[in-house]
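Bug #2210: token dump truncated for MFS transporter?
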Amino acid sequence: MNTEASPSAADERVASYRSPELQAIFGVTLMAVLGVSSIAPALPRIAETLGISAGQVGLLVTAFTLPGVILTTVAGILADRYGRLRVLLPGLILFSIAGAACVFATSFPALIALRVVQGIGGSAIGSINVTLIGDLFVDRQRTTAMGLNASVLSIGTAAYPAVGGALAMIAWSAPFALALLALPVAVLAVRRLHVAPKGHKADLKAYFGDLWEIVRRREVLVLFFASTAIFILLYGAYITFLPFMMAGRFGSTPLDIGLLMAGLSISTAVTSANLGRLVKIFGEVRIMRIGFVVFGLGLAIIPLAPFVWALAVPAVFLGFAFATTIPVVQVLLTGIAPVDRRGAVM
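Reproduced locally. Full output below:
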């Protein structure tokens, strides 16, 4: 098995906001988080307009994220065998077209169906971005690149709720039009990510045998569990629950919700930009443990907020926690997985 693609080139790459390859990856990352964060503030208005319950409108998040749970590994396997771009580009295009089509949906079932299709496209981009970082950067530069990517992700999750909330004030379906941004990102990926691994068509039996040996390792199972827990906490307990709590208890508008949720993202961006320094001080495992403790604390104090803007405190806590868990999990996994198995592992 190959452990690194073009190791000499990867050794020479410096992770910075000016890196052409990283800029393209940042674009992909911004699309990966657009599908949920841009519509979260609009969920109460969508429920009111379509005459559905809070539980039903939450299916718009589930319909988008569930295909990723099922198909991300399949997309990773295809990316290992046929190349990153051959999977990434169709995913971006499908994500964009299906997402924009939601603007014209005239019924809730049609909206759910389009969100599923958009989620299928999203499943091809949600992990390939960090896989590409693992391919193109090594050692400390890889950790720095993951931190920078998380900070850009946070900029997106800060901006999208505010933009989505503002658009929802105009029309409940307007936030879905933001998916069209994936088309120029696809063009940028073609121009700047041609250095990505082209794929390794190894014998399937050998491929899955090696893959099984990787995923059964104790440290990999722990990292998988950690990433799943973060996913459930972030999308279930925070992104879906918080907008309804704010609207129901405090009478918040979609724009208020978007601005409050942006607090988490700003905290994540600041922490992520300094992740390399934090890892150097505490080490990867210790900083991840600290992040999980802060995660629990942030979630615990959300119901105790006496007024709406008091929710900024748990938002800051959760932002710090997100920045010190997800990127570290990604760094550890990319370090364990060889390049020709990395797509499936991520």
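Output looks complete on our side. The chain has one domain: 16-345. Marking as cannot-reproduce; reopen if the truncation happens again.
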